[in-house]
Amino acid sequence: MADRMTRDVYESHAADWVRKRKPLHLDAVESLGKRGRPPSIDLGCGPGWHTGALARPAIAFDVAMAMLELVPDRAPDAWRVQGDLESLPFRSGALGSAWARNSYVHLRRASVPLALADLHRSLRLGAHATIAFFLGGEEGRDLLDGGDFAGRYFSRWELDKLFDVIIGAGFDLRHDDARTNNANEEEVHLELVRARTLPDLVRDQLRILVCGLNPSLYAADAGVGFARPGNRFWPAALASGLVTRDRDPWHALRHHRVGFTDIVKRATVAASELTRDEYATGLARLERLTTWLQPRVVAFVGLAGWRAAVDRRAVAGPQTRTIGGRPVYVMPSSSGLNSHSSVSDLAAHLRAALALA
Fold this sequence. Notes:
By secondary structure, the chain is α/β, with parallel strands linked by helices. It has eleven helices and 14 strands. It starts with a helix and ends with a helix.
């Protein structure tokens, strides 16, 4: 959830903050306003300096009501919404474009993948987004300044790790542009397009990270991995006690610490469309992701996929090959085309995977 101390700073000092700051990078938001489709959203809008340049109708979104109360002076026709970046109050595909500056910089780095996944869910396929992050490697309170605005939380990113997160969140990176802000902090503006894929649903302290080879187009459009009615992953996950809601990966993550990712993010009709380079690139990203977030165990769904991507001689069960230093369990495919594994068999594999944790 949004950092309470950061929110309280903006609630208490909104007017003073506006007096001591000035709008920057209006050219970038105007560029997005020309490319983006409505409805657009200004995430972490502050007093609305950028909101008015977005495609109308535009939504001014902020965690601090004191900031939203200042928006009509700058964007009088904007719709104002108070909310949390980590749990956006919009239906899937509701938004046509998004601008975010001085917003995701206030999240813990381990919280950013899930926040971006929720933005991916909320945007339409092909929607444009421009998001700014601070460059560096640290996170904590008062990294930028103290004084009247002390207590705010900030995170900085190494660019290669940030690109991993962006790809995992289901976005195509079209352009990145380094800029300087009011505090002479270097920030990078990423121009993104919402891709036809599934975003990673990950965080720190996962009990298990469920990994597929790549999303099907059906799953990408449904927004749920293993989504086809004949797929037995979710019945097996329910039978094993891994989850308590059918086909609800968000609930699985938030209530049971079950994460989801894929080796290759590109959605296809069949895995045979993937290339060896995609396997290698995706596996390297997965290694970095698990090294960073350290799930207790990685459960790979699909023996044939694991053989194609990693080990041709592998058999189902625990693997000698680790991912990011974490134990790996490979289970048979849960596809309805795999007639050799029943729901009870797959449930037993999931319980065995959890036992490795």
